[in-house]
# Entry
Amino acid sequence: MNEHVDAARKARKIARETVALLSSLDIAPTPSNYALFYHYLSGTSAELTQTIDILRSNHQEFDVLRCHYLCERFFGSQAFNPVTANHVPGMLQNQPLHTRLIDAHPPHMANASLAHEDDGGLTAGAATEFEATPATKSDVESSEISRLRQDLEEMRREAMTDPLTGIANRKMFDLQLRNRAMEAMETGTPLCLLMIDVDHFKQFNDTYGHQTGDQVIRLLAQTLRNNIKGRDTAARYGGEEFSVILPRTDMKNARQLAQIICQNVPQQDVISEIDGSAIDRITISIGIGCFDYGEPLGHLIQRADQALYLAKQKGRNCVVTEDALKEEAPKDVAVSEIPVAQKSHAAEPSLTRDDKSKRPKSITA
# Structure
């Protein structure tokens, strides 16, 4: 009984928030728009939530056509058949639940439907107008929806890309690491993580300026791109720190790749974009961690960070694996007490493996 009361209270809360959000975004409170943003606020679909978040962060207008496209994409085109049966109570009982919840009209009927919201349905004149609509109008709508789809995908890519380097940003890193960890557990394959940091970057920035510092960041990103394979992910983790996710790669091969990257970076010529003069060569330090099935992903990142810190202690311009952590740590100090470059990692639930299906349970991002 208490669960039912709690669920009802939560539903009413989300309902109020939905109405308020529709009003603040100046979106018509049609049944379809209400259902769309109710699901958005309730978090029932991660992809829907991410899509609307991207649109809102880019200050996109939620006009009739865009809302129609979002409803069609996430709830199916069957929810938008403009048949009069949708407005007959006796026939509603035989329709799928999502059709009854999302009783929307195509964009070209928006004005007619909004004008008659008070009586809850289409007038005969609006229905006749719909039937008389030329086929060319449908073609225009299809073209507009296609354009919106392309724009949305472009915004999604931009939201997951670091603007300075063109490689994955931290948000994409978190998503890819989670996906690759699940894949590793499903297939029983190894997964390694490189954490990379530019040596003496602050001193470099102070000496040559931030524009040259940006040039170094782009140079390192290009070096990573040139040395990884298609399924690997290079990302800018933050500032001058980078990461590389290596699925289906064991520690031995991860170390070989890290050493190649570490050797290639100093060979790159850094030329000042201001006066064209040669600049001191840069070096990097790399720490490597290997994913253990069942561990929180934050632990993997922490071990790779600790290995990176140890590489700095060893004189920089080198590669250190997590295996060296226990060897280097004092006997009276736990490995987890070794300082790390990024200390604040959110607690994450463990990844567990189902022995029967070899599929992991769902994990929280």
